[in-house]
Amino acid sequence: MKPTSIDISLYPHIRRTNDKLGMLSLMEAYLEAMAIKNYTPSTLNNRKFHLLSFMEWAGQRGLHRPTEITKLILERYQRYLFYYRQKNGSPLSFRSQSNRLIVVRVWFRWLTRQNYLPSNPASELELPKVEKRLPQVLSAREAELILSMPNIDEPLGLRDRTILEVLYSTGIRRLETINLSLYDIDWDRQSLRIQQGKGQKDRIIPIGQRVLNWVSRYVEGVRNDLVCEHSEQALFLNRFGNPLSSRQLSYLVGRYIHASPVKKKGSCHLFRHTMATLMLENGADVRYVQAMLGHEDLSSTEIYTHVSIKKLQEVHRLIHPAKSRQEAQPSDESEPPTAEDLYHALYLESDEEIDDS
What's the pTM? Predict the structure, then answer.
């Protein structure tokens, strides 16, 4: 797939010339090389945006060729990102700053490997330290409160309830949700096929009978009336019979969260975080959760082990001295919990026998 056409009308300091060694020409060559390697359009658009932003900043300073860029200039650009203020007056997060710098650094590495540059000025550029924040999650009670918000007596309300049920049950991403088709559901095996998810990878995940009941109700009672063309395969449609856009899906999910008694912010990804955390709290192995979420790296999934505190609460309740003192009997014969007591408290819900062989 070829990279999308580049509109530079919003970047007045970027010059389109016949200079094959100019930044714009080399950026187009880079994007084409990435497209040939089958990078997704969203990745290409993301890199194009960040590179155009850097080139606009450089163009304001009379810099139009990569050979004119030095490590000192890149450090000045890094300071510019630090002091930059968005339209609402807020600064860029350190993660956003880092993402922009990474794209520029990768581009200069490619330029060096393709012999457009004798050396890489970005090789020693130090990225800002990105803060590590835990995702916000819902409790099971809070999730059910949000699920009950749509008015299922209305056609679009029934559609919205079905969408919320799918997000909560499967934890799939926003883009994966809008790309679902009727034929991705295996009713007999109670599974859902995710086609070309993040990283252009397919996966099959389980979907419960409760969700299937909602999907069946929506398809038979609402979707068949919304669809405009028999060839349209998208599962979730808007009022005009077209597939939902990413913005539409984020808006409707966020609207129900905001209108609910739950005082938490978020949209589609909030249900993804919730599903993963609640599964871990209920005893799921982290590798099964990894398969559900479609994470390539286990470390991406392990962040939810820091959010899940059910086991930690049981340990705290059992062995913290303040709690023990509160529940202690007047008699001095009470003994502290043994290692075996702690083990059974942690794994009480497991019916598996321990193999001592």
Answer: 0.69
